[in-house]
Amino acid sequence: MKQSYESISWQDDHLVILDQTQLPLREIYSEIHTVGQVWEAIKKMKVRGAPAIGIAAAYGLYLGVRELESKNFTSFNVELNRWIEYLTSSRPTAVNLSWALDRISQTVYANKDEDLEDVKEVILETAKTIHDEDKRRCEQIGKNGAELVQKEWNILTHCNTGGLATGAYGTAFSVLLQAHADDKDIHVWATETRPLLQGARLTTWELQQAEIPFHLIADSAAGHLMRTGKVDMIVVGADRVAANGDTANKIGTYPLAVLAKENDIPFYVALPLSTFDRASETGEEIKIEEREPEEVTHLAKTPITPKKTDAYNPAFDVTPSKYITGFITENGIVEPDFTKNIKALFG
Description:
Layout: E1 8-11, E2 14-18, E3 29-32, H1 35-43, H2 50-65, H3 73-88, H4 95-110, H5 116-146, E4 154-157, H6 172-181, E5 187-191, H7 198-210, E6 214-217, H8 222-227, E7 233-236, E8 240-242, E9 247-250, H9 253-262, E10 267-270, E11 276-277, H10 294-297, E12 298-299, E13 302-303, E14 316-319, E15 326-329, E16 332-334, H11 338-345
Parallel strand pairs: 4-5, 4-7, 5-6, 7-10, 8-11, 10-15
Antiparallel strand pairs: 1-2, 2-3, 8-9, 9-14, 12-13, 15-16
């Protein structure tokens, strides 16, 4: 597999991101020097996708504490937790964000007796490790998922799950990349993914970069394609998965899963282990982010509705585990019983 771009990177003393709000018309890399800029980049979806959000937040935490002049660990830890709470507020549904920050917090506490300047460097090195680990996980997810794909399959995917959304390669998109690299002659149906059109703007861009044959479809066309036998498999990503397998992903995922079940089409979720939230027993406990109505009533800042039109804009929905065929992880494929087998993933 190969990837021709880097959506997020640490360069010298600052973070650099490929601004996803500008794609596909412009490829603009933004330099980020402060924790506030990281929060804004996550909130405004300049960087997006659960793994990428976690990586950006990890680097952001370092940017928040590197200038602190705390005299002791207690005061330093108070400020650290303040920045953790601040960054977590940017996008609450993606569990990788809190997972990455919790990991750094635990690492900091394990080094509480060290010089505080050394602790700051530990934070940066942990962020780099999280980033590198995600690249390796995504590559393995692709290899594991590609084994499920047969030659000349038509695969439907929703939203954007590629290198733009992760450290590299992607989750569900990594499966497509590897299947293409294995000469399986796949064809991809990419949903437009309203209201922010991540499929139309981003997934198509990544598919072109990888030279994978595809067609873009309206979200509402997916059911017709399934009923007429034009879809062999669906693979999507995830932002949070409960202990029983209930899965929060981009709004519109749930109806795809229901339609797949009705039409006897395998429906897989590709994700790293860090996206499992074992503290949530079911999807009912997952907080769903609600975003600004203007994302629905406007298209690229241009109004598409009558004035004063209100809109309800949940960013995610929850797919009950009964509609999911399996989870593609870096440790292999997880099949039902999900409660039992997800627990087994973590020993």
